[in-house]
Amino acid sequence: MSIVFRNANGWLLDACSLVDKGVQLCNVTSERKAASGKSYFKCCFKHECFQILKSHVSVKSSCTVTTNDCAVSDAALQRSENKTTVDCKPSKKRKRKHNDLNQGEIDSLAFHHKIRSAILEGTKSLVDAGLSCEYLSEVKDAREDPLPSQECNLAALCDMAKELPLVSEHGEDPVQFIESEDGCSTTHLDLFTRITENCMDCAMEVTLMGEKYIIPPRCAFLLSDFSRMQPLVGYGKFFDLIVLDPPWENKSVKRSGRYSFLPSSQLKRLPVPLLASTGCVVVTWVTNRPSHLRFVRDELYPHWGVEVLAEWFWVKVTRSGEYVFPLDSPHKKPYEVLVLGRYRGCGHHSHSSLRKTELPMEEQRVIVSVPSALHSHKPSLSEVLRPYVGADARCLELFARSLQPGWTSWGNEVIKFQHVSYYTMEPTDEPTDEPTDTDTGSLHGESSPHFSPPPPTPD
């Protein structure tokens, strides 16, 4: 179980274990079979990607963060459980006065002040539980191994593939399968205009465009850009959970050119109403810019017919339980926001595996985990959200950069983190007829195999 601990404040997650669970048994390529004499391998995501050992910011002194209607004092800062405060050492640049703050910065401070206590209290309770069961602990003499580095040109390939005709225009089947009829892995796949499925109960190592990727069991994906989503709509499935991680527009993204961004107004064109079943849970990752949060709550969700129900917070901590950035840093925050709602649009999408009685969704919850050091590699929300959508829910991720077992995923880098360079692989015995632990498990009564946590605190 990848939920380390749960209480009334939220969840402590083992994000790496969530990835490993989907690829623990992998049917490998013929080349690897010939070299090892084994047809199956055990895969693990490289754990050095989750070895965040210390905070990214050196903290030396405290200050007061003030807005027109709120203030965070020195004493409040020092109550943080990791005793970190904001480094306010004078810089060489002229320090702006309060009245130099623009409206966006003032709004950000006000929002932070509003949610600060919930994040502080929730994180402390979950980190304390993680320390108690020794899932979190001070790492001594640990080395930080180099991260896997794989040049990803998938987005550029998607841009080039815009010129290709869609298979639907020729009356062809919009779905293709990784395994062929003779049981062999298929290498010649049309990844850009058709849905690709792995219907096997184990992961598959496949060669795609000359590179090897690990594809989790029972998953489907479409590799395309924003303008080529028709195959997903034509897939004929309605989903009970849709998670979005949009490439939000901001100054740092524009400066770095690290990835392409999408203007907020363009998000309204996403065909969410055509993909959502009645009562579908919709979850959107939002940056800490209040303008983005307001857009999702006040424009995007109403445009889709989604009722806003909650705001949750993903809090990023180190292996020892400290915030990756000081909680009150005026720059980068150690948390990101999730906006949750349910699709209340027209009911012609009657097929749904959701429970007849919807589980009420708490307005504020905290999800604490050690983040991946890889850029924009978010933790899976599958186990956290299962009680709200049902065990047999159909799940979809939009703007995905990795795949999840049992999910459908779309994005212009959708298999980025499935590249074999991100995994360690060891030969293992042939699978038996006995059931394997490919399911994500029940929310209650299970724990990660790495430790034995105390029983969860009842809500």
UniProtKB/TrEMBL annotation:
One GO term of the biological process aspect: methylation
Region (Disordered), start-end ranges: 426-459
Domain of life: Eukaryota
GO MF terms held by the record: nucleic acid binding; RNA methyltransferase activity; site-specific DNA-methyltransferase (adenine-specific) activity
Amino acid composition bias (Acidic residues), ranges on this chain: 427-437
Pfam families: MT-A70
Any Gene Ontology CC annotation: nucleus
Family in the record: Belongs to the MT-A70-like family.
Protein name (Swiss-Prot/TrEMBL): Methyltransferase 4, N6-adenosine
Species for this entry: Salmo trutta
Gene name, Swiss-Prot/TrEMBL: METTL4
